[in-house]
Amino acid sequence: MSSISAVEPPPRKLDIAPGILKEARKRLGLSRAEAWEKVNAALKAASDPPMPPDHLAILEAGTDRPTLAEVEALASAYLIPFTAFFGTLPERPVHDFRLAADAGESTLSYDTWRRLSTFDTYYEVARELSGALGESERETLIPKATLPLSTSADEIEPLGERMRATLGITDTLQQSWPDEDAARLAVQERIENTGTFVFSLSLPLGECRGASRWDEGGPPAILLNAADSSSARLFTLAHEYAHLMFAPPSRPTAICDPAQRAADRREEHIANRVAAAALVPRSLLALALPPTPPEGAYREWPPAMKRDIRQTFKVSHDVIGIRLHHLGIASGVRLTKGFWRQPGSGFARGSAGTRAERYRRAFGHKGADMVRRALEAELASPVEIAGLLDTKVADVETAFGPGQPP
Asked: CB neighbours (10 Å) of residue 75?
């Protein structure tokens, strides 16, 4: 008697929206070869068969349809929801990017978009758990402000003072910070106390220093580049907080890539100056500067004098230069490319520590505490949190379980 072997049916193919594959790929600035490599990496991670070299071009041409496994891999590679392939690409929800000074109008790299996609994921986790804990409708303490008509000191100064007052930053407190790390941690804690989530992820140097997001019905959130120096992250905190002051939830979110930012950088300039006014107040400048400041550009001032001034404020020389120029004390502002390339300390970088420690640092004190409280109240299970974060249940339990440090 001959045996009949079972033959598996071919995988079912899905009808996706026309042109969606090419549009999603080009939005990330990927060549077809680069996209193919990333799709195959996603297929391999899921233990699915690889995609033939010419198959992506065939799919984009519409002469064949993708399988379920291929659509899942494409969604992972293109950093979009699975459902987007059956409708339209969603707008990027990140409100603002604080770009590097020399980023220009270049397209953000795939690695940066991937990290910003992780920021989106963290934001959605914060939104869902805030709602489960009954905090989604709580009024934040961020002061709402109207975007000033100009960047004049008369219009910027009150906004910087308002930020300091809201965050409880006094001259005495600021002078007590021993170093840049202490300054950044103190400001971050005060920003989190206003109801704002502060996430940290390592992004490629030279592209993006931070971002912010505040959807209607959701919490405000800031993203810091963990690979940046502490003084740069301190300024990013104030810069993005200024954006949140100008962007209450009633304002729609928007795609903000470098080319679009270059087209209208007015709010960027204002956010920079408000942040500088908040971190380098006139009252402390009067104490830090000599009775008769040197003439000319700040970069040409005596090095020892500049070191003493920087020690007072814990920000970069670039920020101090911007502030002094804005107040008419110094001239010749020129942002240095070298400062951008200063890396953060080993502890701050996302690669340091255990996986659980990296998750806790990435979520910040407020985010980690929220996840822990949701688990303890059984409003969410470790399995559900792991599903939201696309990680292992053991990682969630180790990072956010009862008794874990913030």
From this structure: 18
Encode pLDDT of 304-317 as tens digits.
Answer: 999 999 999 999 88
Rg, Å, the chain Cα set: 24
Contact in structure between 39 and 56 (CB atoms under 8 Å): yes
- CA 176 to the chain's CA centroid: 28
Query: Which is nearest to 295 in space by CA: 271, 325, 322, 335?
Result: 325
Strand partners, 67: 13
**Which distant-in-sequence residues (6+ apart) come within 8 Å of 295 by Cβ?**
none
CB atoms within 10 A of CB 385: 22
pLDDT given for residue 87 in this prediction? 85
Structural domain boundaries in the chain: 20-86, 96-340, 355-400
Q: Which of helix, strand or coil describes residue 82?
A: helix
**CATH of 20-86 given 1.10.260, 2.40.30, 3.30.200, 1.20.1530:** 1.10.260
Nearest to 347 by CA among 361, 333, 336: 361
Cα atoms in the Cβ-side hemisphere of radius 13 Å centred on 189: 9
Predicted confidence (pLDDT) per residue in 250-298, tens digit: 554 433 334 334 435 678 888 889 999 999 999 999 999 999 999 888 8
Residue identified by tokens 């003072």 is 161
Question: CA–CA separation, 351 vs 226, rounded Å?
Answer: 10
Q: How far apart are CA 328 and CA 207, in angstroms?
A: 30
DSSP 47: T
Strand order in the sheet with 96-99: 96-99, 208-214, 220-225, 197-201
- Residue 4 has which token pair? 């009949």
- Please, which residues bridge with residue 367 across strands? none
